[in-house]
Design a protein that fits this description.
two-stranded antiparallel ribbon; alpha+beta
């Protein structure tokens, strides 16, 4: 965050991004996926950014029931980011 001032609108966006990524991270962790770190790279004062949440989305799938459960859990992780923005 060095090198450029942050206005109030941008501060709000940073918080929204953090909540979004934290939503993915938290649900993935609760569901037993391996998690790493959350990284943000803010490129300028206009809001350009990149975000990455380290989640290893692999599990052993030995049966069709495993595949169905994995699919449901994967969708939960996906939606968790979107839902967290509105909380």
């Amino acid at each position: 965050m060095k090198g450029f001032p942050i206005d109030k609108t941008y501060q709000k966006r940073i918080i929204q991004l953090g909540c979004h990524e934290a939503g993915h991270y938290r649900v993935a962790r609760v569901l037993g996926f391996e998690t790493g770190s959350i990284k943000f790279n803010f490129l300028d004062s206009n809001g350009a950014h990149t975000c990455k949440t380290g989640i290893k989305l692999t599990k052993k799938l030995n049966s069709i029931e495993d595949v169905l459960l994995y699919s449901k859990e994967r969708v939960q992780v996906l939606y968790a980011g979107a839902c967290r923005v509105f909380v």
